[in-house]
Design brief:
This protein has 223 residues and is mainly alpha-helical. The protein has helices spanning 15-28, 40-47, 51-63, 82-103, 109-127, 131-148, 152-167, 170-173, 178-194, 198-222; strands at residues 67-70, 74-77. It starts with 14 loop residues before the first helix and ends with a helix. The mean pLDDT is 88.
């Protein structure tokens, strides 16, 4: 039977999904001031939509830890304490190095190719000067390592930790020249994976995350 050349029909996003994505992107890029108190009414008037999809989107973002509810006032972007910052980086380091240890002995050529493709796409977004998409791909790279290692619960935790890392300082994570450095660090990790060198891969990931932590600390000191 001749194969019919048809493309899958893209699912149309709901209003709630659109609001959620727009709000999340604004939060993670620092477009919304952390001191600003938001309300459903304010967002409804700004976006010119009903309050229902806003309420649903906000509920999801509160559940993810990106927004905090203020009783009888509204909500605001979560601020990360010094203690929480240390915990976030500790958890990321523990989770991601564990994922590499599990993945190295079993990684396939197809999985390596998939990781290479993500890094290649990151390079393209760097050239297009699109830091938002670039950072989204960065998150995918880190989560994919855990997914390939069948560490699904750790992957879920990492997603929350990664978002909180971005709350620490979007500009610190993408300071001048850092995009190219991250790509090079990812390529070094990939090289260690190709050589089935678990200790080297872990060492490179530790260094990669320590630089991220250092950049966040630098932005805090300069603020």
């Amino acid at each position: 039977m001749k194969k019919i050349d048809l493309k899958p029909i893209a699912k149309k996003k709901t209003t709630k999904e659109i609001v959620y994505e727009n709000l999340k992107r604004s939060i993670l890029t620092g477009s919304i001031n952390k001191k600003e108190i938001l309300t459903e009414t304010m967002l409804s008037e700004t976006l010119e939509i009903s309050r229902t999809p806003i309420r649903e989107a906000v509920a999801d973002l509160i559940k993810e830890g990106l927004l905090v509810q203020i009783p009888r006032k509204g909500f605001h972007v979560r601020e990360i304490t010094e203690s929480e910052k240390e915990q976030i980086m500790f958890l990321r380091l523990s989770i991601e190095t564990e994922g590499l240890k599990k993945l190295v002995p079993n990684i396939t050529k197809e999985q390596l190719q998939s990781l290479r493709k993500i890094v290649s796409e990151q390079e393209q977004e760097m050239l297009h000067n699109d830091p938002v998409t670039y950072i989204e791909l960065d998150q995918i790279f880190h989560r994919q390592i855990l997914s390939f290692a069948n560490q699904n619960l750790l992957e879920q935790i990492l997603q929350e930790m990664y978002n909180l890392t971005r709350l620490l300082g979007h500009h610190a994570l993408m300071k001048e020249g850092r995009m190219a450095e991250v790509i090079q660090e990812h390529k070094q990790i990939l090289h260690a994976l190709e050589n089935n060198d678990s200790s080297k891969a872990v060492q490179l990931m530790e260094r990669h995350l320590e630089i991220t932590k250092s950049n966040v600390n630098t932005e805090k000191d300069n603020s």
